[in-house]
Every structure is written in C-alpha cells, then in structure tokens.
Amino acid sequence: MITFLTENLTTIIIAVSVISVAILTFIVMIRSKKPFVEPVNQDFLDQLIIALGGKQNILHAEKEHQRLKVTVENVKLLSAPALKALELAAFLKGKEVTLLVKHQSEKVLNFLNQQRKEV
C-alpha cells in the first residue's frame, strides 16, 4: 500500500492541484460577473414625475447611496399607487420622500433635478 502511494504521489498531487485550480477559477468567475442592470427608460422617469406630483411639486432632490431624497412642496399631490406601480419603495417623513432606486439612481437624480429646474 505504501509503495502504491509513493509511486503515484506525483499523480495524486497533480490531480488535486488541477481540481483546486478549476474550483478557484469557477469561484472567481461567479464573483466577477456583474449583475444585470435594468435600463431606466423615459417612460419610467415620466411616471416618476407624475407620482411625485409633477415638476412644480419637487423642491429639492439629492442622492444618498441608492436612495433618493426628494423634498416636495405638497405631500397631498404624491401618488402612492403610482410609486407602487413603478416598484419603488417610498418613505415619507414630513415633506421629504425617500425613494429606494435599485438601479441607476444617479441617472434618476439628474433627471429629477433637470425637470425641477425647468419649472
């Protein structure tokens, strides 16, 4: 038994090394894949403006990580069903609406600020 192990030790070491490298390569490939990011289209952005009560209702917008904090003039103009249809989690605190934007929050923020300035 010992002679079998010593004679085939090199083969066993090579086999274990190849398997280890294959497993590590697989793990690195899985971790390096970027998740699919849904594009933010114009329809989504237009519906968001409507859900927030229109351009005139937006006083200030800023980004905090993946959240957008939007200060509105009149909270009664907000549309909870429209925000739900957009699949946006929204939290209201006073006149500040916090929106959890999953993807491309910077693009959404730029659009909101652009629309706000056009008023």
Can you offer a commentary on this structure?
The protein is of the alpha+beta class. The protein has two domains: 2-32; 42-117, Gyrase A, domain 2. 50% of the residues lie in helices and 19% in strands. The chain has five helices and four strands, in the order αααββαββα. The protein has helices at residues 2-7, 9-32, 42-51, 80-85, 105-117; strands at 58-64, 67-72, 89-93, 96-100. It has a four-stranded antiparallel sheet with strand order 1-2-4-3. Strand 3 (89-93) and strand 4 (96-100) form a beta hairpin. It is rod-shaped. The relative contact order is 0.15. The mean pLDDT is 87.
The assigned structural class equals: alpha+beta
The best one-word shape is: rod-shaped
Gyration radius, in Å: 26 Å
How much helix is in the residues? Answer: 40-55%
Oligomer: single chain
The CATH homologous superfamily of the largest domain is named: Glucose permease domain IIB
Order of helices and strands: HHHEEHEEH
For the biggest sheet, the summary is: 4 strands, antiparallel
As laid out across the biggest beta sheet, the strand order is 1-2-4-3
What is the CATH class designation of the largest domain? Alpha Beta
Number of domains: 2
Mean pLDDT: 87
| Strand fraction | 15-25%
CATH 2nd-level architecture of the largest domain:
2-Layer Sandwich
Number of helices: 5
The parts where pLDDT drops under 50 for at least 5 residues are: none
End-to-end Cα distance, whole Å, is: 86 Å
Number of distinct beta strands: 4
CATH fold-level assignment of the largest domain = Gyrase A, domain 2
